[in-house]
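Supplementary Text 2. Reproducibility record for the structural model of the 181-residue chain.

All settings were left at their defaults, and a single model was retained for analysis rather than an ensemble. We include the record here because the model underlies the residue-level annotations in Supplementary Table 4.
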Amino acid sequence: MNPDIKKQTEALKKKFRETSKKVKTEMDRAIVKCAQKVERDAKKKCTVDTGRLRSSITHRLKHEDATKPVGEVGTNVEYAPHVEFGTSPHEIRPVNAKALAWTAKGQVGQFNKNGGGGTTHRRYYVKSDGTATFNKEDTRQFAQVVHHPGTKPKPYLYPALNENKEYIRKTIADAIKKVAD
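Retained model, structure tokens:
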């Protein structure tokens, strides 16, 4: 092979390797930037009770193979799908006890003093500070089964992704332009 052609071929191969690394670096940066934006917006949209779900939302960059970088945003909290998609009506039964117990704060309800099977009921109203305003009876509720009506969906991940589609397109396009220049 002609030494000049061999030299030019090696230089071209080197240029391709450098360009490939640059493309990978820029795409990784762009995907992380997009994932961070979706994460921030998901946290803003996430309903909050204790804050556990919101604080668990994270992002990561994953490579399915050498040419496919993927940005992931999600959570490892076991109840996250129930918040995002809601639940259908279902029964709740005790697992490690004979009965379920809960406090019905801010609700009007019936309290069975005998814990589920008796007949002594007291009507009460519990204020948001946890104090009963009608009587001084215990405000705990007991049951061997609860027929839960299900919960409505409170989506936060899908809307955060969908609302950022244009931002993602632009960020990826800008990364490609940066490499091409």
